[in-house]
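Field: sequence (string)
Field: structure_tokens (string)

Example rows 1 and 2, in order.
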Amino acid sequence: MTQRRHPFSPLASLAIRLFGGEAGAGILLIMVAVAAMVAANSPLAHGYHTLFHGDLPWSPIAKLSNLHLWINDALMALFFFVVGLEIKREVLDGELASPERRRLPVLAAAAGMAVPALVYLALAGGDPALVRGWAIPAATDIAFALGVLALLGKRVPPSLRLFLLTVAIVDDLGAVAIIALFYTASLKLGWLAFAAAVLALLAGLNRVGVTRGLPYMVLGGVLWYAVLHSGVHATVAGVLAAFTVPMKLDERGDSLLLRMEHAMAPLSAYFIVPLFGFANAGVSLNGLSPADLAAPLPIGIALGLFLGKQIGILGAVWAAVKLKFAQPPAGASWAQLWGMALLCGIGFTMSLFIAQLGFPNSPLLVDEAKIGVLSGSLLSALLGYTVLRLAARKG
């Protein structure tokens, strides 16, 4: 007997293909970015702005007076916590665990951050008010880039996906360091000392072999609160707390770090990052003239992402191979390496985040920066996908 096919089966299959696996998080980010732009340029614009920027009737933390601040300073600390767990795992027992493995991705990531910053400064650095935006095009969005790569399936060799992931992880570590060093307000030494003491307690828990998650969660929350008031951006606390979580495997081959990462990665990818994207990607084009859209700030960011990333990463790989400093990913052609370098120009989450830090008192500059991030990321995604698809056919 032939089983009757439900009329919604094709839709269900499509949903599984789109939102299952690595592609899901990237596609979800595309959808929330579009939704944010629609909301910000429709009759819903006032409600959209009020929802995220209107003062809350009550907040348990005075510094976080609206929903936008709660998302950017609190929820994003959890995102950075997951990033920190991933970085620690890769450094101790992954693709960054040996000098041979980390040599090429570290070099590529460093060049992929430096060249976009130089492109930005060349185009926008003439205005002192815009210099603080130099780091906006330096970051790569892991979820977005891997999502686009996953849509290509078996057309891309596994070594290329692994290389992209490793470059993006090193890129994230660099972005965290940039936020801590260059986007820190005036320091409050009392709160900073308190934060250092809490961090020492967290490290002590690891040292004496505590493997229960609750103490790390409680002290991690205290650390976040201290850093929030210290002048250092609160999200840095997420990475620092993650670095203290034990990675040592037990007799079952498990660890607290692996359990925490497994539990929190979906929450980060499918709730925190999309919510951040929806709250931050909405740019009202009302009142923005063509001159504003073609201003040095958005152009510098867009070209930093689109040109700077591919030039920096592909140039670093080419130089490393020619000088016999490292070997390229196995089975990947130069065309595929170019496509991978293009995908690294997708800067969505971290770039939007740094834009908020770079121009905290200028909504117009933040909007211009968002336009640059969205346009540069879109160009990088489209051309990167096209190059990789064509390269697979030729192969």
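Row 2 begins here:
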Amino acid sequence: MWWLWGALGISSFGAGQVELKQAGDDHVSIEIDGQPFSTLYTARSEMKPFLAPLRTASGIVVTRQWPMETIPGESRDHPHHRGLFIGYGDVSGINFWENDPASKPSAENPQTKGKLLVQKIQISQPGTIVASIDWNAPGQGTVIEEQRTLTFYAKPAGVRMFDVDTTLTAKQDARFGDTKEGFFAIRVADSMAGKNGGVMRNSNGAEGEKSVWGQRADWVDYSGTVAGQKVGILIFDNPGNYNHPTRWHSRDYGLFAANPFGVKEFDPKSGDAGGYDLKTGEHLRFRYRVIIHTGDMPAEKIAAWYSEYAKNGH
């Protein structure tokens, strides 16, 4: 049974505030300073929970809106790419990535689709949503129990920032295979994608898909133009995460993902061991920070933000 505790949470940060509201029994809306920021969709009919759309402080949508909404001219590939989501293409032979009913998994990935089923939602102070999620495999029950905490902030001014803290607990022996398809992902708006002039830049100073894809980095900034304005999305990989700094499955067509498990498809010559074995009862924790900004963001400023993030142990 799906539960929601605390239907309303309000968090004040100086002059700003975060407001979380239950909007029906299958989603929670997030407002910052009285303006819509995003919605967490948790319907049991969905194959995974997701956060969509993501907006700048001025309200510009920086994520693709299909397939949740049909926008004329917007791309319609990869229906499993829904706003911000978590998933993985091979967990003990089950595909928790390309698991939308309309998805057609690629030949190298498992064809059996798993489901991330939200069991409980708790809204708490300050500006925090805690979701209990079962990774269920057909005929096998729950493979992974996940507790995902999303914390939204009203500062710094002019940006939108939130943290995602997720702990995976194996209910049975689980093998995260060595695949590029995962893990912590955002589908950016079409107009800011690399193929339309957008730019990926990582913490090592590399730019563009050929230099960023599959490479290790503390962070990546994916920026471009939406509605005539320069915007960007930053993802920070926490230093405490497994296999930090992570590899990045970031594509010119608009996928933006951190993948801690994949190796062979990113770097066939690497001597690193890909995948991960999570034994029954064991835990694996991942933390990420997402920052949505406008204008050109100097690498020095991003590095300072990241240093502060890492120092404070978020």
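free_text_note (row 2): The chain has one domain: 3-311.
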